[in-house]
Specification:
The chain is α/β, with parallel strands linked by helices. The protein has one domain: NAD(P)-binding Rossmann-like Domain (Rossmann fold, 3-Layer(aba) Sandwich), CATH 3.40.50.720. 48% of the residues lie in helices and 16% in strands. It has seven helices and seven strands, in the order E-H-E-H-E-H-E-H-E-H-E-H-H-E. A seven-stranded parallel β-sheet has the order 3-2-1-4-5-6-7, with helices on both faces. Strand 2, helix 2 and strand 3 form a beta-alpha-beta unit. Helix 1 packs across helix 7. The protein starts with 5 loop residues before the first strand and ends in a 7-residue tail after the last strand. The structure holds NADPH dihydro-nicotinamide-adenine-dinucleotide phosphate (NDP). NADPH dihydro-nicotinamide-adenine-dinucleotide phosphate (NDP) binds next to helix 1.
Length: 247
C-alpha cells in the first residue's frame, strides 16, 4: 500500500477506531484521531509513534460540525491531505420503542447519522481538490436487519448505508476518484455496550457478546484490506461477522 496515507478516524479513542489506527500505524500511515476523550487519544497517539506511524489528535464531538471541520483542518495543517476518512464514532443504546427513551434516540441520530454526514461534508472538499480519497462509513449488521429493541439503532445504521450509496453515486458523477466503503460489523468486543442505558437490555447483550463476540482486530483488518485495494476498485459493502453469529 501507499505507506504514507493520511487517515482521519472519528471515534478513535477505543474499540474499532483505536484498533484500526494502531494497525495502520504499523504500515507507516499518518493518523488523525478524533473523539471526545482527549486523554485516551493522547495515549493512542503515543503508541502510534512507537509503532512507526505519525499521529495528530484533537478532542472532537462529531455532533458539532465545527469540531468535525476543525479535525479535517488539523489533518491538512499537519499532513497536507486526507486520503481516508473513517466515520466510525457511534453509540448503541438499544431499547424497545414503548420505553420512549428520547434522549437515547436523539443521541443515536446525532452521533451515528449526523456525525457521519458532518464527516463526509468535512472530507469531500479536500478529496475533490486532490481528485482522490476514500470515505469509509461504519454501519452494522443492524443496518441490514432490525429486531425488537433495535429500532432506532438499526434506523441509524440503515441510514449510514443509504447515505453511503448516494455518496458513491455522487462521487462517480463528480469524477473525483473518491471511493466509498461501508463496513458492517457483527458482535465485536469493544466498549460499545457501555453506551446501553437500559439495564435489562445491557445484561442480555453482555450475554450475547460473551457467547459470540470476536476480537476487534478482525474489523481493523477488514478496514485495512479495503484501504489497500488498488485505487481503481472499491469494496462498497462488507459484512464482517463472527462465524458463529446467527443474526
Ligand atoms: P466503542 O464504544 O469502543 O467506540 C465508540 C467510539 O465512538 C469511541 O471512541 C467514542 O469516543 C466515540 N464516540 C461516541 N460518541 C462520540 C461523539 N459524540 N463524538 C465523537 N466520538 C464519539 O465501540 P466500537 O468500537 O464497537 O464502535 C465503533 C463503531 O462500530 C460504532 O459506530 C458502532 O455502532 C459500530 N459497530 C460496533 C459493533 C460492535 O459489536 N462492537 C457492531 C456493529 C457496529 P469518546 O467517548 O471518547 O467520544
Amino acid at each position: 500500500m501507499n505507506k504514507s496515507k493520511v487517515v482521519v478516524i472519528t471515534g478513535a479513542s477505543s474499540g474499532i477506531g483505536e484498533a484500526t489506527a494502531k494497525l495502520l500505524a504499523k504500515d507507516g500511515s499518518k493518523l488523525v484521531l478524533g473523539a471526545r476523550r482527549e486523554n485516551r487519544l493522547k495515549d493512542i497517539a503515543e503508541s502510534i509513534e512507537k509503532l512507526g506511524g505519525e499521529a495528530a489528535y484533537q478532542s472532537t464531538d462529531v455532533t458539532d460540525d465545527d469540531q468535525v471541520e476543525s479535525l479535517a483542518k488539523l489533518a491538512i495543517d499537519k499532513f497536507g491531505r486526507i486520503d481516508v476518512w473513517l466515520n466510525n464514532a457511534g453509540i448503541m443504546p438499544q431499547s424497545i420503542l414503548s420505553e420512549k427513551k428520547i434522549t437515547d434516540w436523539n443521541n443515536m441520530i446525532d452521533i451515528n447519522i449526523k456525525g457521519t454526514l458532518y464527516g463526509i461534508g468535512a472530507a469531500i472538499p479536500y478529496m475533490d481538490k486532490q481528485k482522490s480519497g476514500h470515505i469509509i462509513n461504519v454501519s452494522s449488521v443492524a443496518g441490514h436487519t432490525a429486531h425488537q429493541g433495535s429500532a432506532v439503532y438499526s434506523a441509524t445504521k440503515f441510514a449510514v448505508r443509504a447515505i453511503s450509496e448516494s455518496l458513491r453515486q455522487e462521487m462517480v458523477d463528480a469524477k473525483n476518484n473518491v471511493r466509498v466503503t461501508v463496513i458492517s460489523p457483527g458482535a465485536i468486543n469493544t466498549e460499545l455496550l457501555s453506551s446501553v442505558t437500559d439495564p435489562d437490555v445491557k445484561a442480555n447483550m453482555e450475554k450475547f457478546y460473551e457467547s459470540f463476540g470476536i476480537p476487534v482486530d478482525r474489523v481493523a483488518l477488514t478496514i485495512k484490506e479495503a484501504i489497500d485495494m488498488p485505487a481503481d476498485a472499491a469494496w462498497n459493502e462488507v459484512i464482517i461477522r463472527p462465524t458463529n453469529q446467527l443474526v
